[in-house]
Design a protein that fits this description.
The chain has nine helices and seven strands; from the N terminus they run αβββββββαααααααα. It is of the alpha+beta class. Strands 3-2-5-6 form a four-stranded antiparallel beta sheet, with no helix packed on it.
Length: about 270
Amino acid sequence: MKAFIVSILFLLALNTAQSSNIETDSIISISGQVLHSESLTPIPLATITIKRTRKGIICDSLGIFHLQIKQYDILRISALGYKNIDWEVPFVFNPDSPPFFQIKLEDISYLLDEVDIYALGTWDEFKEDFIKSELIEKNPINKSITKQLAPYNTKKPNIVPPQYRANREGKMGVLSAIFAPTDFLYSKLSKSEKSKRKISKIIRNESKAKKISSKFNADIIADATGLEGDELVKFMEYAGSHIKVTPNSSEYFVMKQILFWFNKYKEESITEE
């Protein structure tokens, strides 16, 4: 009889242990909110990580999160400007209706190095210092790679945004019609492709005009010649057709032309008088 009772108690204990393991290993859903420890205001975009799996989520703008975990999991709570904590999930007695947890974080202060603040001077002085400054590559690997790739880095960047680029840029001739007939027909017949080509052309022309304007304009001519008002307008009308400026022209080349034609302009003005 005693042996029978002992056997029954052993089976009950074994069943209790197994059910406890099942509860521990079962997946449960929890929800909660991350709050400031003093003001109790929500902390948005805090990170919740399950230490066991290293997986997690990011809270919403109100600091609320929903997460699937196992009983007795430990969560790592972190947010910018707050101390990280390891939070042990309390035992959930009713997985079908878990409580809404509130997790509080404390502020953290970062000790920054001393910073010297000084004036940069005038805008012209800043530009001069900036142009003269040298960018030193601290990583020798990057420096070596840059030198090795320099001969191949000859392609100019495309100034046209991707959404306005045609599928095939440039002219498509007879060879394109033979070897890529589908692309050729699409390029010629598609309204969207025609529209993209027109927009691309406008963008490129505007870019060229801006580059030329930055090298040859009324302010630059006035600084070089000292002319003002109507006299400046007359000289620009006189020299405009003679001075050749492209987006690739150097400032020295443009200035040389301005001064050359300015001397011509003064000589002709004296002759007329």
